[in-house]
Amino acid sequence: MSFVTMHAGGASFPAPAYSAALANFSLLYHPINTFSYNTSDSLGGQQGVYSGALQWAGSDVEIAPSYLSASQALVALPAIGGGLVIPFNVPNLKRLRLSRKVLPRVFDGTIQYWNHPLLTDENPTLRSVNKPITIIKRGATSGGTILLGKALKLMDISTGFPNSPFLQPVFTIGPNNSITVKTSGEASTMVAYYPYSISYYNDVDSALYNQTIATLQHQNGDFVDWSQASILKAINSINQNEIDSLNVYSQSAMVLDSPIAGTYPLTVISNFVINPSKISNDYTTTIITLRFLWWFLMNPAFASQNRFTPLYNTSLGFKTMQFLSTVEYPGLGPLFGRSICDTKLNDAWNPRNPCVNGYCAEQLPFQESTAMCICDFGFENVFNSDCSEPTRLFRPDWPTYVQFALLLPGVSVIIITAIKLFLNRDQDEIKNIAPNCCYFILLGCLCGQLSILLQATSVSRSTCTMNIVFPSIAFGAIFGMLFLKSARIYVVFRYRRMARSQYLKDVFLILVAGSFALFDGILGAVLAIAVDISPVFTILSDNSSHQYVCYASFSTDFSIAVSVIFVALNCLLMAACLIMSYLSRNTIKRFNESKSINAAIYLSFLFMILGIAIVLGIPSNTTSTQILHRLTIVFVMWFICTGTPLILFQEPLHHVCQAPQASNITDKVSLKIGRSQSFLDKIGQVASLPPQSATGWEEFLPDEQEMIAAQLFYVGLKRGRLSLWSSATLMVIENMSSMFILTDSFHLYFQLRKSKIKIPPLAIEEPEGSMTTRFTPSRLEMTLGTDSFLFEFRTKEKMEKFMTLHNMAFVERDVDGGFKVGGL
């Protein structure tokens, strides 16, 4: 609830009860600054409401005609019952009986001495008290003064007193022997310290000084003392027809001088005064005001504890509730009954719980239309608002649909990538990136995608735990393997003697990364147990929603220690990946996979930093920020678990899928590359370039065209013993005794005579993961100066054909068209 200020004031007669209630209401709605009830008088309270200075006021009388304009008509709603008592201060006088004939004459100034014969008839002890009567009175606009005048008028009418001054529209209390004060509290003080005085106010103020109050005569001649029972009896004497016909705009409920025996003659009904067309310009203040008025009627203790009579469970009180339920706010219509949690008017005195499996957070009416029952764990509101629906497996909100929309392409990428890797596992490009390690990374990514699914499930202790365990396993698997692969590339590049170490094999890497992922998952489970993570009900600060959330308690040293270890371990892994990416930055030119691994690590790190900044920087205390946190976590996991396979495997798979298959290779092609001798002369200039030169030979193409025959061989290539496998095309030009090596990263031209082939093929270690070595009859090694190239042909026949072409380069034609051996 936002901070609001509710202003109240007016009649002093009911002030004690209202002040006590406001103090308690401020505690109930502790953010609300409710000022205490500021007493003045009834008409002053009406004027405050009419001007907008007060949201509501207390008034003992009906609305003044000047406050009944069509657009801003005020209403007086029955609020509390009480009695005007007649306290007096006559030393040693313990009881004073005032008859219906005497009471009006005391206050109109006719009886001016305490030993007046009319007084001594019922009070013989006053015969010796020859003292003037001093009347302590309130102003003419005071509700007590107005009500006293009405009661005295009724008494004069019933006794037949002629020319009663109280029959006049304007009358004066004690014109010759009175003192005027502002409030009933001041009147009580004056009576307490001013001997031989008399006044009129509520019983609460008289009780402050333990003052004696007079006994008044009923219509039937009995003398009746003030009591809550006599007040309640008078209130209940009002018949239902009178209540139904009560016009709250121009009338006030009257119980003065009731004919029912045993009723107190000066019984008073005090009212709430409001402007129903505009209680306040502020919506929240309007709601709070209406709730307070309703709450006061529903809590009789504030009236009874302050010696008033509550209107709880009375027809008059229900009359007030009926009117409050009709109050509207501009643009919103009636404010009552908009929510299932609003009390039904017919059940106002005995409200029932509308929730099947839950309760309402707010027990008072005038709730927002969005307010619904707070469900017990295991139930929720989807189509209904009464907690009658069992909790579904997945959350019934729009972020869940977003998560499913992300999950489908994410899992598809992982599955399709895994299938392609498996089908092309024998291709050099795929062997080069160690498919078994790739499968492990994909498994970690799949675990991460499942954690996205878990984020969409309804909250329970098991899902709260799994939301820690699954991301931990995914994180450990993905970044553990990325670190190990990056470290292997660095070691192979930096320390050649360790290239054949068994600790660089795929199996060892998978075991290490798997162990870390498993340990990270177990540590996450231990953390969930240590912090006792479980569903806890929470109401968001904007009151827009209430829900169960996963709550962790870090109340023990063990829970704090486990959480620190868990965070530190994963931070160290991420730091190790970043450090290894930096150290292996120089291997990018030789190892294509190194570039992909570094990109995956850096991008994942950036996404995680962004996600952490959002989650820790924006408090999740509203519905929108709760959704923001949830989607931030989901998107970070999705980008990592979907982006990592694309970054690592898209390029090699693309090359493999685009390369021609062996069955479709045409071994002999015709190329329009110009006159052979002219081309040979010019290409010789390129041949003099270092072997790593990759460009320039195209510039030597002549303008005249002729057909030159070339042989194409698609092979796996390893440049140097320590590099990784890649795909290459060997183009052998027969009649020029020359050859091109064409790869994605370089184009190399040289004359075959300058190269050597080592025969037979060497015992070659399997690339990236085999724990044994074997002789491969389809491999051979070619040296060109200081450079070494290892070729793996698709078939043994292809390799033998290449060797034949290579050998032919050493057979030179003589001048007669014969051949001579150039040497092998």
UniProtKB/TrEMBL annotation:
Domain of life: Eukaryota
Assigned GO CC terms: membrane
Membrane-crossing residue ranges in chain numbering: 401-423, 435-456, 468-487, 507-540, 560-584, 596-618, 630-649
InterPro entries membership: GPCR_3_C, PBP_domain, Phosphate-bind_PstS
Membrane topology, record value: Multi-pass membrane protein
Major location (coarse): membrane
Family annotation (PROSITE patterns): G_PROTEIN_RECEP_F3_4
GO MF annotation terms: G protein-coupled receptor activity
G-protein coupled receptors family 3 profile domain ranges (all copies): 399-615
Transmembrane helix is among the record's keywords: yes
Family assignment from sequence similarity: Belongs to the PstS family.
Protein name: Periplasmic binding protein-like II
Species whose genome carries this gene: Rhizoclosmatium globosum
